[in-house]
Write a structure and sequence with these properties.
Elements: H1 5-19, E1 32-37, H2 52-67, E2 71-73, H3 83-92, H4 96-113, H5 129-143, E3 145-148, E4 153-156, H6 157-167, H7 190-195, H8 198-206, E5 211-221, E6 226-228, E7 233-234, E8 237-238, E9 246-255, H9 261-266, H10 275-285, E10 287-297, E11 303-308, E12 319-322, H11 328-332, H12 338-349, H13 353-358, E13 366-373, E14 380-385, E15 397-400, H14 406-415, E16 423-424, E17 444-445, H15 456-470, E18 473-479, E19 484-485, E20 498-501, E21 504-507, E22 540-541, E23 544-546, H16 554-557, H17 560-563, H18 576-582, E24 587-590, H19 598-611, E25 624-626, E26 630-640, E27 645-648, E28 660-665, E29 671-675, E30 678-684, H20 685-694, E31 701-702, E32 712-721, H21 732-739, H22 741-750, E33 758-759, H23 765-779, H24 795-814, H25 817-833, H26 839-849, H27 854-863, E34 887-894, E35 897-905, H28 910-918, H29 921-927, E36 934-938, E37 942-946
Parallel strand pairs: 1-2, 1-24, 12-14, 24-25, 26-33, 27-31, 34-37
Antiparallel strand pairs: 3-4, 5-6, 5-9, 7-8, 9-19, 10-11, 10-13, 10-18, 12-15, 13-14, 16-17, 20-21, 20-23, 22-23, 26-27, 26-28, 26-32, 29-30, 30-32, 34-35, 36-37
Helix pairs in contact: 1-27, 21-22, 22-23, 22-25, 23-25, 24-25, 24-26, 26-27
C-alpha cells in the first residue's frame, strides 16, 4: 500500500477538529504552557510558504509540551482592522467587512491544511464587535487614568481631581504628576479650580490622562486620507503605496506611553529575548541622563530650556539650535530673517522625524537673527533652527558643542561657526579638530575655566551641581520615546467611545459598549482631517457628535494574547481565574519588524492593566523568538523608461539609463537557465506581451533583436524576500497537494535555523518526502496492514532510538529544529541497516516524530492498534544507560599499520586483550610465525603489535 498523504492528512485533520484534540482547559491541574504566534493580518493574497515558518516551529513546541504533560494553550486569530483592508476595499468596490471575512476563511483553510494544533474554539477577530468592545473598554480605562511618578503606577483621574480640589496645583510636586505639565499655563488654588468651567477643567485634565487628546505635528498622507505612524513612513512617502507625506498639526488622540518609559526600559532585563531585540527597544525608548539648563534670551527676561547629556561640554557651546517646530522661532526670528526662516521651517517640517534622524549627510538650517546668553561665560550665542533637532526630544532646543558632537560639528563647519575644543583626547591630545568631533566620554577638561583638569565624569557632576546652585538647571532623565499617536482618519477601525458634549470629549458608559462601526457604502477618506465617519449625519450619541476618527491597527493587537485566555467571556475581557491560571505567554514567536511597534505597545498596555490589578504579571511575554524570512528568486525584467520603453538585456547592466525601473516577473511562468555562467529566467515573448496588457503602468517596449531568439528573452534573477509584489511566492497549498503537509512542515524546519533567513528551493523537498515514504514502507506492508513485529529490540536498536530521543528533546527545547530533521533521517537509516522492524522501537519513534509530522505519525499509530490520538501519549524517557558502550572495536596495527579490527568488551585487563588479539587468525597471519617484540595497548583506543 502506497503512502497516500492526501487521504491520510484529510482524515486526521477532520479527526482533530471533531474530537477537539487540542482544546485547552482553564481549570486543569496540569502545569500550563502558553504558546503564541503573532497573529496574521488576513490579506487577500493568502499565505505563501514563508508565512508558516514560525507557525510550524511553535506548533512543534506546542505538540511537544503536550506530550510532556502540559496543558497547552496554542490559539490563533486575526488582526483584521487596518489600512490595507480598507485600501483593498476601495480599489475593488467591496466592503472591507466582506473581504476580511473572505480572507479569514481562506487563511483558516490554509492553516488547517498544514495541520496546526490550534484550539480553534478560542479564535479571535479584532474587527468583531464582541472583541473590540474590550479594546474600547481598555481605551476608556486609559482615558480615566493618570500616572503617579512617585508611586510609579496608574491611578484613577478622580484621585487627581481630588488633589486639585484640596490643594490646586500651586507648589505641588510636579515630579509626581506626570503628563504635559508645561501645557497647564497657570497655577491655581483649590478655590480657583472649583470655579473653573467644565471646559477649562477638561482641558487641564487632558494634560494628564493616559489616553488624551492634543494638537501635534503628525504624518499626514492626503492620498490615503489619514495620519501615519513614524514606522509607516519611509523616505518622505507612505510605506503602503508610496504616497507623499507631509507634517501637519492636527488634533489627535494619543496614549501616554512615555509615562512608562523607565519601566519599559528597565524590565527588558527580566525577559528571555534576544539581545538584539532588547537593544532595538532600548534604542527606541532612548533613555539618557543629563541636565536641563536655562539659557537667557538676549535683552529679555525669557529663558530657553535645553536638555543635554553632556553638561561637561558647556564651555564649548558656541550656538543654539531650535527644532523647526519650536514655538520659539516665531518669537525669536527677527524681521530681516523672517522670510528665509519661514520658508526653511515649512520645508523642514514636512520631513518625518525618522528621515531627519537618518539623513546625516544633509546639512541645512537658518539663523533666526536672535541670541541667547551663555550662563557661565556671559557671551552671546547665535540661535539657529535646523531639521536635525527634533521637537519631540528633550525640549526641542540644543546647546551646540561642535567640537564634541558630530552633527553639531558638521553644521558648524558648513556655516563657518567656531569649534573650540574643551576636552583633551588620549595622551592629552589638544590639537584642533579638523575632520570630525571628539565624542568620547573620557578625557580631561580644557578651555573650561572652573572645570579645567577634571575628568569628564567628574565635570558632568560639577556642572549639574553648579546650575542647581545658580537656580538655572536641574538633573534630569530624558527619553527619545514619544507618546503613541492613536488616531486614524479612516473607516475600517475601532470607533472611539467618545462623544463631544458642549465641546468636551466625553466617554460613553461601559453599558453602551460596544460602540459598533456603522455600515457605510461610501467609506472613502475625505481628504480632510476628519475621517469618513464625519459623512454620517446620524453618527451621534444623544444628539451629540461622536468622534469621527478610528483607532489604529495596533489597538486590537496590543492585548489579543489576553483574550485568548478566555475568548468567549461576555462579561469581562478575561476572567480572574483564567488570568491566574495562564498568567502570561511562555513562548512567543514572530518577526523582528514588530520590535518597536506591537511589542512595545503590548508591553505598555500590559503594565497599565497590571497597575489596575487586572493582570497578574508585569510583562506579557516571557520568551520571544524571531523567525527569519524565507526568500526566493524573482525574475526581474529591467525597463528603460523613455518615450518608448526598452527592455534592458543581460550585458547592458553597466549602462547608465535615466529613469530605469524594474518589473518583477512571475517565476511560475519562467524557466531557470544558465547564460555566460550566470542564472537567468527564460521568458517567452508571448507571455510577456500578455502580462503587459494586464499592467496599465507599462509602456510599449522595444526589445533588442538579440533578446528575441526563438520568441524568448532572458530576465535577471534577483534574490529577494518572498512577497506578492515580487511575484515570487510559492503557495503552501500546492506543496501540501504535491508532497503533503508533513513534508512541508519538516522541510521548512530543515532549511536552516529558525532565526535565520534562508532561500526556498522546491527541488530540495524530495529528500524529506522520501524520508516519510521510507518510514511508511518499513511500518506498513503491501496489504496496508502493519509490518512491524513484537520481537524484543537489540542493544544496537535501542541505542539508535534513545540517541534520537535525547537529540530531539534537546533540539526542541533549544529550538534547533533543523538538526532534528537530520537526526530523524539518520535514525531511520541506521534502523534500516539493522533491518529493524520492531514495534518497541517504532512506537516511541513515532511519538517523538509526531510534533514534526503529525499526520503520518497518527496514521501508523492507529494502524498499530491504538485507539487514542498519539497527541495524548507521553514523550518517551531517555535512558542514558543504553548509550553506554559495553564493547569497543579496536583497530589492531602491526608495526603501526592497521591490519584489522577486533571488537572486545570494555574494562577487561590488558593481559586478556593481548591474549585475544594474538590468538586471532588475522594476527597469526601477520605474525608469520614470529614472536612479537612488544604489544602496546591503549584501553578503549588501539592495539599495536611490534614485530
Amino acid at each position: 500500500m502506497e503512502y497516500n498523504h492526501k487521504e491520510i492528512e484529510k482524515h486526521w485533520r477532520d479527526f482533530w477538529e471533531k474530537n477537539k484534540t487540542f482544546r485547552a482547559k482553564n481549570n486543569s491541574k496540569d502545569p500550563k504552557y502558553y504558546v503564541l504566534d503573532m497573529f496574521p493580518y488576513p490579506s487577500g493574497a493568502g499565505l505563501h510558504v514563508g508565512h508558516p515558518l514560525g507557525y510550524i516551529a511553535s506548533d512543534i513546541v506546542a505538540r511537544y509540551k503536550k506530550l510532556c504533560g502540559y496543558n497547552v494553550l496554542h490559539p490563533m486569530g486575526f488582526d483584521a482592522f487596518g489600512l490595507p483592508a480598507e485600501q483593498y476595499a476601495i480599489q475593488t468596490g467591496k466592503h472591507p467587512a466582506d473581504t476580511t471575512e473572505e480572507n479569514i476563511n481562506r487563511y483558516i483553510d490554509q492553516l488547517k491544511n498544514i495541520g496546526f494544533a490550534y484550539d480553534w474554539d478560542r479564535q479571535v477577530n479584532t474587527s468583531e464587535p464582541e472583541y473590540y468592545k474590550w479594546t474600547q473598554w481598555i481605551f476608556l480605562q486609559l482615558f480615566h487614568h493618570w500616572y503617579d511618578e512617585q508611586e510609579q503606577k496608574a491611578k484613577h483621574i478622580d484621585q487627581l481631581i481630588s488633589i486639585f480640589e484640596k490643594n490646586g496645583n500651586k507648589g505641588y510636586d510636579k515630579q509626581m504628576i506626570s503628563g504635559n505639565v508645561e501645557a497647564v499655563e497657570q497655577t491655581f488654588t483649590a478655590e480657583e479650580w472649583k470655579g473653573f468651567s467644565e471646559k477649562t477643567k477638561s482641558d487641564i485634565l487632558m494634560c494628564y490622562r493616559l489616553g488624551y487628546q492634543s494638537f501635534a505635528y503628525v504624518n499626514w498622507c492626503e492620498a490615503l486620507g489619514t495620519v501615519l505612524a513614524n514606522d509607516e513612513v519611509k523616505d518622505g512617502v507612505s510605506e503602503r503605496g508610496g504616497h507623499p507625506v507631509e507634517r501637519r498639526q492636527m488634533r489627535q488622540w494619543f496614549l501616554r506611553i512615555t509615562a512608562y518609559a523607565e519601566r519599559l526600559y528597565n524590565d527588558l532585563n527580566t525577559l528571555d529575548w534576544s539581545d538584539s531585540m532588547k537593544e532595538m527597544q532600548r534604542h527606541w525608548i532612548g533613555k539618557s541622563e543629563g541636565a536641563l539648563i536655562k539659557f537667557q534670551v538676549k535683552d529679555t527676561q525669557e529663558f530657553i530650556d535645553i536638555f543635554t547629556t553632556r553638561p561637561d561640554t558647556i564651555y564649548g557651546a558656541t550656538f543654539m539650535v531650535l527644532a523647526p517646530e519650536s514655538e520659539w522661532i516665531q518669537v525669536l526670528t527677527t524681521p530681516d530673517r523672517k522670510t528665509v526662516v519661514e520658508k526653511y521651517v515649512n520645508e523642514a517640517k514636512n520631513r518625518s522625524e525618522r528621515e531627519r534622524q537618518a539623513d546625516v549627510k544633509r546639512i541645512s538650517g537658518e539663523f533666526t537673527g536672535s541670541y541667547c546668553i551663555h550662563p557661565f561665560t556671559g557671551k552671546e550665542i547665535p540661535i539657529w533652527t535646523s531639521e536635525y533637532v527634533l521637537a519631540g526630544y528633550g525640549t526641542g532646543a540644543v546647546m551646540a558643542v561642535p567640537a564634541h558632537d558630530s552633527r553639531d560639528f558638521r553644521f558648524a563647519k558648513h556655516f563657518g561657526l567656531p569649534v573650540p575644543r574643551v576636552i583633551a583626547g588620549e595622551n592629552g591630545d589638544q590639537s584642533e579638530l579638523v575632520d570630525d568631533a571628539y565624542e568620547a566620554k573620557e578625557g580631561i577638561l580644557m578651555n573650561s575655566d572652573i572645570l579645567n583638569g577634571m575628568k569628564v565624569k567628574d565635570a558632568i557632576q560639577a556642572v549639574i551641581q553648579q546650575v542647581e546652585k545658580m537656580g538655572i538647571g536641574v538633573r534630569q532623565v530624558n527619553y527619545r520615546l514619544r507618546d503613541a499617536n492613536f488616531s486614524r482618519q479612516r473607516y475600517w477601525g475601532e470607533p472611539f467611545p467618545i462623544y463631544y458634549k458642549d465641546g468636551i470629549a466625553t466617554p460613553l458608559d461601559f453599558s453602551e459598549l460596544p460602540l459598533k462601526l456603522p455600515e457605510m457604502e461610501d467609506f472613502k477618506p475625505t481628504g480632510n482631517p476628519e475621517g469618513p465617519l464625519a459623512k454620517l449625519t446620524d453618527w451621534k450619541y444623544k444628539g451629540y457628535q461622536l468622534e469621527t476618527d478610528t483607532m489604529p491597527g495596533f489597538a486590537g493587537s496590543s492585548w489579543y494574547f489576553l483574550r485568548y485566555m478566555d475568548a468567549n467571556n461576555e462579561t469581562v475581557f478575561c476572567s480572574k481565574d483564567a488570568l491566574k491560571y495562564w498568567q502570561d505567554v511562555d513562548f512567543y514567536i514572530g518577526g523582528t519588524e514588530h520590535a518597536v511597534g506591537h511589542l512595545l505597545y503590548s508591553r505598555f498596555w500590559h503594565k497599565f492593566l497590571y497597575d489596575l490589578g487586572f493582570v497578574p504579571t508585569i510583562e506579557p511575554f516571557k520568551k520571544l523568538v524571531n523567525q527569519g524570512m524565507i526568500g526566493n528568486l524573482s525574475a526581474n525584467v529591467r525597463i528603460a523608461n523613455g518615450e518608448k520603453g526598452r527592455v534592458i538585456i543581460p550585458g547592458e547592466a553597466e549602462v547608465q539609463i535615466a529613469n530605469e525601473y524594474s518589473l518583477f516577473w512571475d517565476v511560475n511562468y519562467a524557466e531557470l537557465v544558465s547564460f555566460n555562467n550566470k542564472d537567468y529566467y527564460k521568458i517567452s515573448f508571448e507571455n510577456f506581451e500578455r502580462y503587459k496588457l494586464l499592467d496599465k503602468n507599462f509602456l510599449d517596449f522595444d526589445f533588442p533583436e538579440s533578446q528575441l531568439k526563438d520568441g524568448h528573452f532572458l530576465a535577471y534573477t534577483v534574490n529577494d524576500k518572498m512577497s506578492k509584489s515580487k511575484l515570487n511566492v510559492v503557495n503552501p497549498d500546492q506543496i501540501c497537494s504535491d508532497y503533503g503537509a508533513d513534508t512541508l512542515r519538516m522541510y521548512e524546519m530543515f532549511l536552516g535555523p529558525i532565526e535565520q533567513s534562508k532561500p526556498w528551493n522546491t527541488n530540495g523537498i524530495t529528500g524529506v518526502y522520501g524520508f516519510l515514504k521510507k518510514l511508511w514502507r518499513i511500518c506498513i506492508g503491501a496489504d496496508g496492514n502493519i509490518a512491524l513485529t513484537n520481537e524484543e529490540p537489540t542493544d544496537k536498536e535501542l541505542k539508535t532510538l534513545h540517541k534520537t530521543i535525547k537529540k530531539i528533546k534537546e533540539d526542541i527545547e533549544g529550538l534547533s529544529l533543523n538538526t532534528s530533521v537530520s537526526a530523524f533521517m539518520i535514525c531511520l537509516n541506521e534502523l534500516y541497516d539493522l533491518k529493524c522492524n520492531k514495534k518497541k522501537i517504532y512506537e516511541p519513534l513515532l511519538i517523538i516524530l509526531s510534533p514534526f509530522a503529525p499526520h503520518i505519525a497518527e496514521e501508523i499509530w492507529w494502524k498499530l492498534g491504538h485507539t487514542t490520538s498519539i497527541a495524548e501519549e507521553k514523550f518517551p524517557e531517555f535512558r542514558p544507560e543504553l548509550l553506554i558502550e559495553n564493547s569497543f572495536s579496536y583497530p589492531v596495527s602491526f608495526n603501526g599499520k592497521v591490519r584489522f579490527n577486533l571488537e572486545m568488551p570494555l574494562g577487561i585487563p590488558n593481559e586478556q586483550i593481548q591474549e585475544t588479539v594474538l590468538n586471532h587468525a588475522d594476527a597469526i597471519k601477520w605474525l608469520e610465525g614470529k614472536a612479537p617484540k612488544k604489544v602496546i595497548i591503549v584501553p578503549g583506543k588501539i592495539v599495536n603489535v611490534v614485530v
